[in-house]
Amino acid sequence: MAIEIERKFLVRDDSWRTQADSGVFYSQGYLSTDPQRCVRVRIAGERAWLNIKSAVSSLRRLEYEYEIPLSDARELLHSACPEPPVEKTRYHVEYHGHVWEVDVFEGANAGLVVAELELADEHEAFPRPAWLGDEVSDDPRYYNMNLAQVPYTQW
């Protein structure tokens, strides 16, 4: 079992791009979207995973992730997930010893750019890059499973 401790922020400008990698396209759908636990199918590039998350707090989740065949993931996305997939390109940006994941959403969530940081402890201090905007860790609208049901462009 792994515990994920994650902080999520809006991104205020594109200055992060000068330090970002080339990015990977993600497509993900949800088999279950219970607010306390979700089951996700994710394709990232040419690899795929089944992921189970269970909320412990707004920042801490139990997380189980299993690689699955890409063909199985494609089939699940198109046949078993009720909403269209959440599509985004994920970039990694190193900043003062931390690696930020910056997600640029597409499709029904176009216009949304979110930066996430995984931490070792809920109270861990970290330097904030200038491109970082407001924190949305406690706002469930920004959870990917909720973006699948009520996309950003419909807010």
Which range does the strand content fall in?
over 45%
Q: Which CATH class?
A: Mainly Beta
How can the largest sheet be summarized?
A: 8 strands, antiparallel, barrel
Structural class: mainly beta
CATH superfamily: Hypothetical Protein Pfu-838710-001
Number of individual domains: 1
Distance between the termini: 35 Å
Instruction: Report the total helices.
Output: 2
Nearest-integer average pLDDT: 94
* String of helices and strands: EEEEEHEEEEH
Helix share of residues? 10-25%
Please state the overall shape, judged from the principal axes of the Cα atoms: globular
Structure description:
With 155 residues, this protein is mainly beta. It has a single domain (2-154), classed as Hypothetical Protein Pfu-838710-001 (Beta Barrel). The protein is 10% helix and 48% strand. It is built from two helices and nine strands. The protein has helices spanning 70-79, 144-149; strands spanning 2-11, 24-34, 37-44, 47-55, 60-68, 86-95, 98-105, 113-118, 132-135. An eight-stranded antiparallel barrel has the order 1-5-4-3-2-6-7-8. Strand 7 (98-105) and strand 8 (113-118) form a beta hairpin. The radius of gyration is 15 Å and the shape is globular. The model has no long low-confidence stretch (mean pLDDT 94).
